[in-house]
Design brief:
By secondary structure, the protein is α/β, with parallel strands linked by helices. It has helices at about 15-25, 40-50, 65-80, 105-130, 155-175, 195, 200-205, 215-225; strands at about 5-10, 30-35, 55-60, 85-90, 135-140, 180-185, 235-240. Helix content is about 45%, strand content about 15%. Helix 1 (about 15-25) runs parallel beside helix 2, helix 1 packs across helix 8 (about 215-225) and helix 4 (about 105-130) packs parallel to helix 5.
């Protein structure tokens, strides 16, 4: 009888950190569910790269901030095709501005995508993990979720919040062999920090490692957290930021 390959869902999986995680999972033999919101070209490119490792990669195009659509789509996916064994909550957005200038839209958009989506995505998946007595959830937060950052009251709030959600969930499901952990990246060379990249020579001086991270630096930690080697680690925040004090 053929053993079922484990399945992993990666939100925001078409580029940057998400893409690196997808490729790492494919190398480890996971079938992939690759979520993205809008960039069809990048998603298709990532799918092709993933499938070079002879695994299945299904694209799921949807906005993780749309509760009804997200929940129904993932619930149907689990009912039709089986449980999702590994969930990587990676998708996130920024809209930086000083708080006195921040609009309600600036606030709500970031909270909806970065924080409220935790409920939307985890809810239809966690029951399957619970009943099969196995699951790995890794939340990609941020160093901004461990310390205040100027111009990021909305972003930092969302990243603080998702840490609390993940820690609480970890306590609830630990007895069923479901691990929930958090990674807090620092400066990682992706499109999200386009503005910071313009000041790289200045900003890198505050990083003890004297370099910005790469998407693979994050994917390598995810690889450990989804492995059996991390079975006794849950509810923890792992900063991956080159030594920046938090």
């Amino acid at each position: 009888m053929e053993t079922r390959r484990k399945r992993a869902l990666v939100t925001g999986g078409s580029r940057g950190i998400g893409k690196a995680i997808c490729l790492m999972l494919a190398k480890n033999g996971f079938d992939l569910l690759l979520n993205y919101k809008s960039n069809d070209e990048r998603a298709n490119e990532t799918q092709k790269e993933v499938e070079k490792y002879k695994v299945n990669c299904k694209i799921l195009k949807f906005d993780i901030a749309d509760f009804k659509y997200s929940f129904n789509l993932l619930n149907e996916e689990v009912e039709k095709n089986g449980n999702i064994d590994v969930l990587i909550l990676n998708a996130g957005v920024r809209k930086d501005t000083l708080f006195p200038l921040m609009t309600e839209e600036d606030w709500n958009y970031i909270i909806d995508v970065n924080y409220k989506s935790f409920f939307y995505i985890v809810k239809p998946i966690i029951n399957g993990m619970f009943h099969q007595n196995y699951g790995k959830i890794v939340v990609i937060s941020s160093t901004a979720g461990l310390m205040g950052m100027q111009g990021q009251v909305n972003y930092s709030s969302s990243k603080f919040g998702i840490i609390g959600a993940a820690k609480s969930l970890a306590v609830e499901v630990a007895r069923r062999n479901v691990n929930v952990n958090i990674i807090a990246p620092g400066y990682v060379e992706t499109e999200m920090i386009e503005e910071e990249m313009k000041r790289k020579s200045e900003l890198v001086k505050i990083v003890p490692a004297r370099r910005f991270g790469t998407p693979d630096d994050i994917a390598n930690v995810v690889e450990f957290l989804i492995s059996d080697k991390s079975s006794y680690i849950t509810g923890q925040v792992i900063p991956v930021n080159g030594g920046v004090y938090t």
